[in-house]
Amino acid sequence: MSNGARLDHDGTPLDQPHPRWHVRVRGLDKSFGANHVLDHVDLDIERGKVNVVIGASGAGKSVLIKHFMVLLRPDRGSVWVDGTDVFALASKPLSSFRRKFGLVFQFSALFDSLTVEENCAFPLKEHTKKSRAEIKDIVNDRLGALGLEGTQRKYPGELSGGMRKRVGLARALVLEPEILIFDEPTTGLDPLATRNVDEMILAAVERYKVTSVVISHDMASVFRIADRIAMIHQHRILAAGTVEEIQASREPYLFEFIRTSGVAAAYGKEAAP
Ligand SMILES: Nc1ncnc2c1ncn2[C@@H]1O[C@H](COP(=O)(O)OP(=O)(O)O)[C@@H](O)[C@H]1O
Ligand SMILES: [Mg+2]
Prior knowledge:
It is a single chain. With 273 residues, this protein is an alpha/beta fold. The protein is built from nine helices and ten strands. It has a single domain, classed as Rossmann fold (3-Layer(aba) Sandwich), CATH 3.40.50.300. Helix content is 34%, strand content 23%. The strands form two sheets. A six-stranded mixed beta sheet has the order 6-7-8-3-9-10, sandwiched between helices. Strands 2-1-4-5 form a four-stranded antiparallel beta sheet, with helices on one face. α3 runs parallel beside α5.
């Protein structure tokens, strides 16, 4: 890896936007005390696609993704987002850089005392100078795109878990992020609600052309939504590639991980109804 020269292994400069790779992780090392979590991790996130990161619980998926928006800093290595060396950003450019990202939390983290509309308007009031009418239009657009029309005046407590997740995504979309991050969006949901959240992710990607990074250990869901899959195992990326490449892999741990999930590897995104 030619980190120092800022040239990637394919000869393209890391410090300029790459046509295909939106985020490039190179040689990332991260330990917490004696707990070595990431060991020289390389990962490419494809622009405008659904990139899924899989791996056992505690493998380091969340830790890896937190480096993208500098919620964590590595011991060594770099993350390039559109040619920006993210760990080199000073605090002021860093806060505007972070607005490229939309985070959809595991538990949708809505304000219970605000209506759906107020929840979604919140980031716009906080970060923009848009008028009330403009804000209303944007919020209605996002709610409509996610099948949430008519919920404007409801409170989060009146909605189902799946719908609250949709509201969380609608709120993440109001600031027009370039990269959406979902950390285990379907954990704790029943199969129907999981499918619902999968469809919501696909709808958002289709409509807003965002790059998505989804952490998941639900293989049925992974095969429904993924364009690319990367697996973390024993501190490293064990395998990464298109869904077809991952399904064809005979890497023993990966093969076993998919096999024991009980999901027939035959059904990919295109074949899904
Ligand atoms: N802020 C932190 N401080 C110390 N240890 C952490 C911190 N965040 C994560 N870890 C540890 O790093 C390892 C990977 O965690 P994580 O990335 O959350 O796993 P997962 O793959 O389930 O998302 C775990 O052993 C976890 O305890
Ligand atoms: Mg996690």
